[in-house]
Write a structure and sequence with these properties.
Elements lengths: L3 H8 L15 E5 L4 E10 L4 E14 L3 E3 L4 E4 L5 H9 L12 E9 L4 E10 L3 E6 L3 E6 L3 E5 L11 E7 L3 E12 L4 E5 L5 E5 L3 E8 L12 E7 L2 E11 L8 E7 L2 E6 L3 E8 L16 E3 L2 E3 L2 E2 L1 E3 L6 E5 L4 H4 E4 L8 E6 L7 E5 L1 E2 L5 H6 L3 E4 L8 E5 L2 E6 L6 E7 L4 E7 L1
Parallel strand pairs: 26-34
Antiparallel strand pairs: 1-2, 1-10, 2-3, 2-20, 3-8, 3-9, 4-6, 5-6, 6-7, 7-8, 10-12, 11-12, 11-15, 12-13, 13-14, 15-17, 16-17, 16-20, 17-18, 18-19, 21-22, 21-27, 23-34, 24-25, 25-30, 27-32, 28-33, 29-30, 31-32, 33-34
């Protein structure tokens, strides 16, 4: 159990967001001197008990003697900072000092005399005996495990419907404490797990028997839901994939890892054999981000559309509709490339019981010399008997998803709601 804290620190991660969803894989690591690094652990050595952090930004805390502050200062509006810095400030606003003007910051240049490193355009937070500044630069920082006080991360954004949850088995509470690890306090020896119920479960790290990764979307492969690829280096070789389970062990029962190295293969690695664990961003990681759909909006194959009232010409057959497009076609007419819909036409709508009345149906051309064409200028008609039923229906996170198979047929279609006589026009080219 001697490596329990550092193992959980390295291997526990879940999707997070810091103002922008593109920053979901990063955590905050707070050091004993007050420095806070934002990034991820890229390696952990089991021989010298060190961790390497790959950072994107940091609140640096230094002794006055080690910090050379440039005499030139620039009062800069926060709105004028680059997006990366603004995102970090939005999620760490508590770090900036209280002042009458919270819309500006002080920029300067600081040299780290101890490590011979120069930081340009940093935000000066404090000077004096202790110097504090915010730097948004990519760095690799090697620290001793014992220097880390705690790490924190934001909860996974509700719009992300794929990724990983963590399931803990403990001596005190039993099995299946499931959720996202949002904090680990090394001083207290505790971790906080945020469950789907909305409250945090606080447990002692020493009480943990095992920890497993659970895929949020069981239909997606693990290599599309894991933000990192992990390589476990041992005395006898290395294993690359993602660590699906940790059993921490006792004096009588050694701990081990399970590493999923391919879709159907899992390797068991004993803790005693581990030399180092490395981690790097997974290029195949594809988070499923649900669209931010408002009422009366449709999201069709990554395009927003708005229904219009269907202009219908009366027909003797109640199931036949002779129609022509509304003038506001730019908002109601979606054009799709047939090469991009091989897996089907995806339609997403905010969850509502009346969505079951949605009908997807192909349009047919009206004969040019027919009465409805000559008199009413109708170009198309459709019959409810031609309805294309969805091959997949599901509801997740307040979004109804329907997938329709069009069998690679080009032409015009409508998403028709009979109860409201509304339609979204779809053209497949």
């Amino acid at each position: 159990m001697k490596y329990l804290v550092s193992k959980i620190l390295l291997l526990s991660f879940c999707i997070q967001s810091v103002a922008q969803e593109v920053d979901y894989i990063y955590s905050d690591y707070e050091m004993k001197d007050g420095t806070i690094y934002t990034g991820y652990i890229s390696s952990q050595s089991f021989t010298d008990k060190t961790i390497t952090l790959t950072t994107i930004s940091a609140l640096k805390v230094m002794d006055e003697v080690d910090a050379k502050i440039n005499s030139t200062f620039s009062i800069t509006p926060i709105s004028a900072l680059d997006g990366k810095m603004q995102n970090w400030l939005n999620s760490h606003s508590y770090i900036l000092p209280d002042s009458s003007n919270k819309s500006t910051v002080v920029l300067t240049v600081i040299e780290d005399m101890k490590n011979q490193r120069k930081y340009d355009d940093v935000i000066l937070v404090q000077r004096g005996e202790k110097v504090k500044f915010i730097a948004c630069e990519n760095e690799k920082v090697k620290v001793n495990v014992n220097e880390i006080v705690k790490f924190t991360k934001s909860a996974r954004p509700s719009r992300i419907s794929s990724g990983l949850n963590e399931c803990f088995s403990t001596r005190k509470y039993g099995n299946d404490i499931t959720g996202q690890v949002v904090c680990q306090n090394m001083k207290e020896g505790t971790i906080c797990i945020l469950g789907d119920e909305g409250y945090q479960f606080n447990i002692k790290t020493a009480d943990i028997i095992s920890r497993s990764e659970i895929l949020i979307d069981p239909e997606l492969p693990y290599n599309e839901q894991c933000p990192f690829i992990e390589t476990v280096k041992t005395k006898n070789g290395s294993y690359s994939g993602f660590i699906s389970k940790q059993v921490f062990g006792t004096k009588d029962m050694p701990g081990y890892l399970l590493v999923q190295t391919s879709l159907n293969h899992v390797d068991r690695v004993e803790y005693a054999d581990i030399i180092e664990i490395q981690r790097q961003p997974n290029e195949r990681y594809k988070p499923i981000i649900l669209p931010n759909i408002s009422e009366n909006e449709y999201y069709v194959c990554n395009k927003f559309a708005y229904p219009c009232v269907l202009n219908r010409i009366q027909s003797k057959d109640e199931d036949t509709y002779y129609v022509y497009e509304n003038n506001d076609s730019t908002r109601t007419h979606i054009v799709l490339n047939i090469n991009n819909i091989k897996s089907g036409v995806y339609v997403q709508i905010k969850t509502n019981p009346i969505n079951k009345n949605l009908i997807f149906v192909p349009l047919k051309n009206v004969y040019s010399n027919s009465i409805v064409s000559l008199k009413y200028k109708a170009k198309y008609y459709f019959n409810l008997d031609d309805e294309i039923f969805p091959k997949k229906c599901e509801t997740k996170h307040g979004i109804d998803t329907f997938v329709y198979e069009v069998e690679q047929k080009k032409g015009h279609y409508v998403l028709f709601r009979k109860d409201k006589h509304e339609a979204v026009w779809i053209e497949i080219k």
